[in-house]
Each structure stands twice: as C-alpha cells, then as structure tokens.
Amino acid sequence: MFNKGKKKGNVVIILSLLLLLISVPVFSLKLPERKSGENPTVFIAGDSTVQTYDETSKPRAGWGQMIPNYFSPKITFENHAFRGRSSKSFINEGRLDTIIRKIKPNDYLLIQFGHNDSRKNRPDLYTTLPDFKNYLKLYINGARGRGATPILVTPVGIRDFNRDTGKFNVSFPEYVQAMKEIASELDVLLVDLSLSSVAYYDTLGPIGTLSVFLHTKPGMYKAYPKGVHDNIHFQENGALQIARLVSLGIKDLNIPLASYVTNIDPPAVEK
C-alpha cells in the first residue's frame, strides 16, 4: 500500500497514482453525519486475542469479549476484532470502514494489532514497521476525523518464557515499540498491555499461566475433544484477567471514559 521504491519514468508515476487511488479507504469519502450520544460507545479493532467468540468455541475467549465486565452498563461496546487480522488486512477487508461509518463524537476506538503484522510468510498480513505505523495512522485519523478518541493498545503477550529463568519475554517487541513511537508522534493515548500482561504472567509463572491460555484436557470441551495446548489464545478466565489489565490501563489515562470503569477487583483464578 505504501510505495517506498523510487519512481522511474512516467509509467511508474501513473501506476503509483493508480495504486494510491485504489488504496484510499472508503471512509475518506463522504460519511453520514453522527451526533454524540449521552454515553460513549467503545469500538474495538483487533485480532483473535481480542475477538468475541460464541458458545461453540468455549472456553476460547478474547479480552474484547470480557471487557464489559469492568465497565458501567451505561457503556456500549462494539467489538469488531476478528481472528487472523493484521492492521493491514483489517483495513483491506473494510472492517475499519464499518467502524468509522458508525463511530460518533465522544466515542472511543481501542486498537490492538501486531501479532499478525509480524507474519512474514503471509504477505496479505505482514507489514514492515514503517507500514505498520502508517496503517495505525489510518485508524487514528479516522477516529479523530469523526470526533472520537483513539486509544492504542500494545499487543498482548503470548506464553513465551525463558526456560532457564521462567521469566516471560516481550512478544513482538519491534511492533510494541513502533506503536509507542506513533503514539508519541501523534499524541495518542496508549495502554501498554504488552508491559502489563508480561508482568502479570511473571506473577503466575510458566505453570500458573496454563489457566490463562487455552490449555485443556481431552473431553473437557466440545470444541476441543482431543484437548488443546495453545500458547497464544486465552480461555475465558485468561481473557477476563487480560480485560482487567486493559481496563486498569484506561482508568490510569484519567480520561472521561475512566469514570465508567467499575468492578476492578481481580477475578478469582480458576484451577
């Protein structure tokens, strides 16, 4: 989408202009007018770690599914996160366009990407770090252009730890840093879920985090008759814990949305 090559000749210039026109998001065209509501709606853009799942996927869950537990019922959440999406593919499929058409003044847009952006073997998903920043700008400017507030959320950590020390590693560190840089550059609110999730995993240790991630024994759940050992996605208890970290991060931002954060006590850990 973002051409870094040198333009050589009129043909290349024309092709570049055509690509630019093709890549302009639909929301850059005329949008329906939207007036602010009495209470804000929180829209969420992200991947499978954020997604809302139905009963057929139980116990798999995303933090975007669980975050309403920590907010006043006055707040409406619209979770548009979907599995296997990167900052690029989410836009290319029109998912950001859907959000921008619905979002209104005083609403919020939570944005978590990075997991799938790092997949070099998937050109439909992969983004270089400069392109990652440019795609994030589309989310940021799209929300701001509608009078809403974007909030960047650094990619949640996966179950990846040092085998010698048991300490957890930062996942996708280059994308975490890129998101922080664009937040600083454009003065965007940021919840450092990468930092808080890794710190949380360290309190549990490698064994304790089995109750957070999607690890089940055979026969426990219809969706996973043979059991599952997944170190990326969460079971319901884990998604609830991660949603709490996001909620705490929002509360610490000291913005109007923070006043709607409630029930912030940590949920019981299921054994």
UniProtKB/TrEMBL annotation:
It holds the Pfam family Lipase_GDSL. Keywords: Hydrolase. The keyword Hydrolase applies. The keyword Hydrolase applies. Coiled coil: none annotated. GO terms for molecular function: hydrolase activity, acting on ester bonds. Belongs to the 'GDSL' lipolytic enzyme family. PANTHER family: PUTATIVE (AFU_ORTHOLOGUE AFUA_2G17250)-RELATED, RHAMNOGALACTURONAN ACETYLESTERASE. This is Uncharacterized protein. It comes from Metabacillus litoralis. The lineage of its organism: Bacteria, Bacillati, Bacillota, Bacilli, Bacillales.
